[in-house]
Amino acid sequence: MKLLAATRSRGKQPEIRRILEPAGLEVSFPDERGIWESTVEDTLENTESFEGNARRKAEYFARLTGLPTVADDSGLEVFSLGGAPGVRSRRFAGEVGSAETVDAANNAELLRRLRGAPEGRRRARYRCVLVLLREPDGIPETFEGVCGGRILESPRGKGGFGYDPLFYSDELEQTFGEASPEEKDRVSHRGRALRALAAAMTQATR
């Protein structure tokens, strides 16, 4: 079954392929379909919820391609910061530039806001919401995954992307930056949401 994954993130794309392709889904991304980046995309993530942002992206790309489309919105929620950075995880520090530049600025801003905070105030979770449209005018289906942990005082590990070197997973007992891709996939917010999506799609074809 063909599925368009509506993301241009070089960090998310390998994760999506690793989990969905073994389930029998033929995954492609916008660039592979000849859908080049447009300024319209800058306006899609303007709601106050992960689900709202994911739904807007799914609707946009499903209309362009006519393919079954899944879109993701995800981020880090630090409880002592009122759930921030949340839906603004990618734009937390207001930095622009390469993914590496943006990640570094966001991590620095997170550390600044938590400077001196005890471990109890560093509790956090990663959360992912996927919205699937099997056809452009279809009924949206939602899948969610979460994983808990805490924010360290300094980064550990070079793997992953985003806040991964600062996010210490309760289940792995290491940061996502230290974990192998397979270890991260097993417990991550996105891994859990993607497996729920794959189960729903493969069950529908039986």
Fold blueprint:
Blueprint: E1 2-5, H1 12-20, E2 26-28, H2 50-65, E3 69-78, H3 99-113, E4 123-133, E5 141-151, E6 167-169, E7 174-175, H4 181-187, H5 189-204
Parallel strand pairs: 1-2, 1-3
Antiparallel strand pairs: 3-4, 4-5, 5-6, 6-7
Helix pairs in contact: 1-5, 4-5
Number of helices: 5
Q: Helix- and strand-based class?
A: alpha/beta
The ordered string of helix (H) and strand (E) elements is: EHEHEHEEEEHH
Total of domains:
1
Termini Cα gap? 12 Å
Identify the strand order in the major beta sheet: 2-1-3-4-5-6-7
Output the CATH topology: Maf protein
Structure notes:
The chain has 206 residues and is an alpha/beta fold. It has a single domain (2-204), classed as Maf protein, CATH 3.90.950.10. 31% of the residues lie in helices and 21% in strands. The chain contains five helices and seven strands. The chain has helices at 12-20, 50-65, 99-113, 181-187, 189-204; strands at residues 2-5, 26-28, 69-78, 123-133, 141-151, 167-169, 174-175. Strands 2-1-3-4-5-6-7 form a seven-stranded mixed β-sheet. A hairpin with a 4-residue loop joins β6 (167-169) and β7 (174-175). It is globular, with a radius of gyration of 17 Å. The protein starts with a strand and ends with a helix. The mean pLDDT is 95.
Provide tags for this entry.
206 residues, globular, 7-stranded mixed sheet, 7 strands, alpha/beta, single chain, Maf protein
